[in-house]
Amino acid sequence: MGEGKRLVDKVAIVTGGASGIGAETARVFAGQGASVVLCDVNSVLGRSVVGEISDGGGNAIFRALDVTNEQQWTALVAETEEMFGKLNILTNVAGISGRDPKELTQVTPTAGGMLEDQSLDKWNQIMEVNATGTFLGTRHAIAPMRRAGGGSIINISSICGIIGSFANAAYHASKGAVRIFSKAAAIQYAPDGIRVNSIHPGFVDTPMTKPAHSNPELAQIRLEATPLGRFGTPRDIALGCLYLASDESSWVTGSELVIDGGLTAK
Ligand code: NAP
User: Fold this and answer.
1) Do the Cβ atoms of 112 and 170 come closer than 8 Å?
2) CB atoms < 10 A from the CB of 2, how many?
C-alpha cells in the first residue's frame, strides 16, 4: 500500500490550503500519501477541499488558522502531534497581495499602491500575514520536527521577493523577508535535520491574480514578461513543494526554488 508514493508516513501542515496554490499543494501531498492538516481563515472553502481529498481516498483534516495568531499556532501544532503522532512538513502558503478585495479587475500591473499611497496600516497588514505568519509557523514547527528527528519547512515567497516591480513595495518587502528568513532558519536548524527552503512563483492563475489576469491588457503584459508564454498553474508550484517536502531533497536547504516560466532569467 502506498508503494511508489513520495510522502508515505509523513504528516504535513499546509496553510492557505483553502485556495489556489495551498489547495493544490494539499491535494498533491495527500495524493502522495501524506496526512494533511489543511489550514486557512476561509473555513467554508477549506472544508470543501478536505472533503474532496477525503472523497478521493486521501487523509486530510481542516483546522481554522489565522497565521498571524500565535495562540492558534500553539494549539494547531499540539493537536497535530496528538492526532498524528508527529509533524514532518510545514508549508507556509497563506498570503495576501494587499489589493483591495472590492477591486474585481486590477488596473495597474502590480496589485497595491505606489509608496506614497500605501498606508502604514496596509504595510503592517501585508507584513503581518506574509512575513510574521511565516515566522510564527516556522517557530512553532521547530520543536515537533526536532522530536520527529527532522523535517522540511517550505515557505512560499514570490518572484517579488527577488526583484522589484511597478508598485506594492510592502508586498515585495514581505516576500523578500520570507526569502532571507528561510535562509537564516535553514542555517540555524540544519544541525537538527530541519530543512528550510523558499519557493518563488511567477504569475500563477489563482483567485489572488484573477483581478489582474481578467484584464486583457495586464494579462498581456504579464504573459510577454514570461518567456514560457503561459501563466503558471497551482500544480506547477505544488510539484515544487512536493520535491522540497520529500526525502528526495534531503541535501537541499536554504535554497530558493524559482518557478516562474523564466521571468526572472531575463
Ligand atoms: P489565494 O488563492 O488568495 O490563496 C491564499 C489563501 O490564504 C486564501 O485562502 C486566503 O484566504 C488565505 N489567507 C489569507 N490570509 C490568511 C491568514 N491570515 N491566515 C490564514 N490564511 C490566510 O492566493 P495564491 O495565489 O494561491 O497564493 C498563495 C501564496 O503564493 C501567497 O503567499 C502568495 O503571495 C504567493 N504567490 C502567489 C503568486 C500568484 O501568482 N498567484 C505568485 C507569487 C507568490 P482569503 O481568500 O479569505 O484571504
Assistant:
1) yes
2) 10
Q: How far is the CA of 133 from the centre of ligand 1 (A)?
A: 12
Q: Is 156 in the pocket of ligand 1 (CB under 6 A)?
A: yes
Ligand 1 atom having least distance to the Cα of 97: 34
Query: CA–CA distance from 246 to each of 17, 67, 207, 229 (Å)?
Result: 19, 24, 27, 29
pTM summary value:
0.97
- Mean per-residue pLDDT over the chain, rounded: 96
| Cα 199 to ligand 1 centroid, rounded to whole Å | 14
For a substitution probing ligand 1, which of 13, 14, 21 has the most ligand atoms within 8 Å of its CB?
Answer: 21
Q: Closest ligand 1 atom, CA of 208?
A: 3
Q: Which residue has the cell 508514493?
A: 5
Q: Is 65 in the pocket of ligand 1 (CB under 6 A)?
A: yes
3-state DSSP assignment of residue 113: coil
Domains of the chain from N-terminus onward? 11-258 (3.40.50.720)
pLDDT digits (tens, 9 = 90+) for 152-204: 999 999 999 999 998 899 999 999 999 999 999 999 999 999 999 999 999 99
Spatial CB neighbours of 104, under 8 Å, sequence gap ≥ 6: 211, 214
| Rounded CA separation 212/94 (Å) | 19
What was the pLDDT predicted at 2?
65
Q: How many A from CA of 20 to the centre of ligand 1?
A: 7
